[in-house]
Amino acid sequence: MQVTSSVREPLVTGGKTYHDVTHDVSRQVEGKPTLLWFLAFLTAAGTLAIGLIAVTATVWEGIGMWGLNKTVGWAWDITNFVWWVGIGHAGTLISAVLLLFRQKWRTSINRAAEAMTIFAVICAAMFPVLHMGRPWLGAYWALPLPNTFGSLWVNFNSPLLWDVFAISTYFSVSLVFWYIGLIPDFATIRDRATGLRKVIYGALSFGWDGAAKTWMRYESVSLILAGLATPLVLSVHTIVSFDFATSVIPGWHTTIFPPYFVAGAIFSGFAMVLTLMIITRKVFKLEDYITMTHIELMNIVIIITGSIVGIAYITEFFIAWYSGVEAEQYAFINRATGPYWWAYWSMMTCNVISPQLFWVKKIRTSIIATFALSIVVNIGMWFERFVIIVTSLHRDYLPSSWAMFYPSITDVGVYLFTFGLFFTLFFLFAKFFPVINMAEVKSVLKSTSAKVRK
Amino acid sequence: MEKDKNFILGVYDDEDVLLHAVSEVRASGVKIHEVFTPYPVHGLEDVLGYKRSRLPIAAFLFGMLGTTLALTMQLYMMRFDWPMIIGGKDHAAIPDFIPVTFELTVLLAAFGMVGVFMVSSNLKPWAQPRIFDLRSTDDKHIMAIDIANNTSMEVAKIQEILKSSGATEVNNKSFE
């Protein structure tokens, strides 16, 4: 079935037939979970359980359990929130932007990347909700609900409220996009199954029969959803950056923030996709579907976005000096040489220097190097948010109120909780859902590698 | 003969053979009930003569509804129902309302369009699809021809047309 071309590298290697694609992907769903999967799942669920203690403490005692003080009123929570939201940008970027640009290589990785997006956004949402202190009243503060105070409505001038709308829209549209893509694959599993599995996947597949008319509508829906999701994905991190950029804190009050945050989000999101996909392809033996070409292309995206981020850091520093505003200049000098110098230089090393290694072909086509650097990038991106948030706050206008931020054990626990949640959800997904979009991979099997169309 | 019960199925292995076969079968006067494929085959809707989907129009209309609702809601709440001065801004601070308006436009367009898609394609968790051939979600393209719709032609003749158009198998399928 698969024909190799002399001009174009095949996207799927190993001479797979259509049936091989079905078999290789459905095998994970149909087989018994392996010991390795159980160990991984239990580790994730265990982390979740330990983290739950910290979450309970936060809700029970209040956010006084965190390491915040009067000067640094935002720290780990917002750092972790922005970090997770950033990671949650790759999935929809891969499925929407790359669909509009007709990048066919996205078909092998879009399913898992979108799943990762959805789980990362769930983790991100934990932080603002917990930071409300009394989350059970949160709906009144976050949503325009009629209430007994007047009605006194939510403030539509506030970027924090825009965030509520941006993130919930992003989450729900991504979820729908992901699920629409899953329906034909659930039908494939349904048609191979018997008994209870047939009933469950039958319900999940919504009665899909693969009729040409339904496929026509499906393609139309995918294209329009991609068109809607593309500005949406750019808007989400833009609005997240408004949380800072619209304030008048030196170090935050910068017009460069929206594009800089979006580039950083794509940067960290692709790094997380690589971390997860390198493990997934190995464990599930999907090396023929997620090939070196995929890894190399993603590494190239990392070089580009990493360089944009690097230029943004330098521009920011230059503009601080050029503005002539003393407070602004101090904020930046303090970042690089103040008590948090180690955080700043960790960020610079991990985000600006390390991705440049991918210019070397040997490094960007090495699995081990890619895996290591993908983790380094996400450490760097965590430090970026920490640097922006904490160093801009800890030395405010009055030297008598200068302070340092020290995370409490509860801060660490809540962060661990989100890691547990993310990986628990991801392992469940990897076992029970088809990790590769079978229908879309089948659709590119021929056109990318055939010599000519008949 | 009752409609929608007895079918002749042509089984095709290759998408390009299928595309040509659909044109040939239609040209020879056979009415095709539907074609079932494991993945979207580009150009299939054209050779089958399907009209373009109007789902993008639905998406646009739902999007417009989202824009209108979002702007109306924000203006009503901030300008009329409980006006407050926030940061010295105008009560009707339209530029500040744009982010929420954009998000709600996207939200309604996406959900509205997907909702219409689900309803028009009869996709729902309790739907019981009629499966013509289990392999149509794996690796085979299935062309279904309703015998009752092609009474002017002998069944054997239709089978002959399918065979000569490149079908690897020609089967019969009846539903209760």
From TrEMBL, chain A:
Ranges annotated as spanning the membrane: 35-60, 80-101, 113-133, 160-182, 221-240, 260-279, 300-322, 342-360, 367-392, 412-433
- The identity of this protein, by name, is Polysulfide reductase NrfD
Q: Does the keyword Transmembrane helix apply?
A: yes
Q: What PANTHER family is this protein classified in?
A: POLYSULPHIDE REDUCTASE NRFD, PTHR43044
Similarity remark: Belongs to the NrfD family.
Provide the taxonomic classification: Bacteria, Pseudomonadati, Bacteroidota, Cytophagia, Cytophagales
Location within or outside the cell: Cell membrane
Write down a Pfam family by its short name.
Answer: NrfD
Gene that this sequence comes from: nrfD
Print the keywords alphabetically: Cell membrane, Membrane, Transmembrane, Transmembrane helix
Membrane protein topology class: Multi-pass membrane protein
UniProtKB/TrEMBL annotation, chain B:
Q: Which branch of life, at top level?
A: Bacteria
Query: Per UniProt, which keywords does this protein have?
Result: Membrane, Transmembrane, Transmembrane helix
Q: Does the keyword Repeat apply?
A: no
Q: Which residues span the membrane?
A: 57-77, 97-120
Protein name listed in UniProt: DUF3341 domain-containing protein
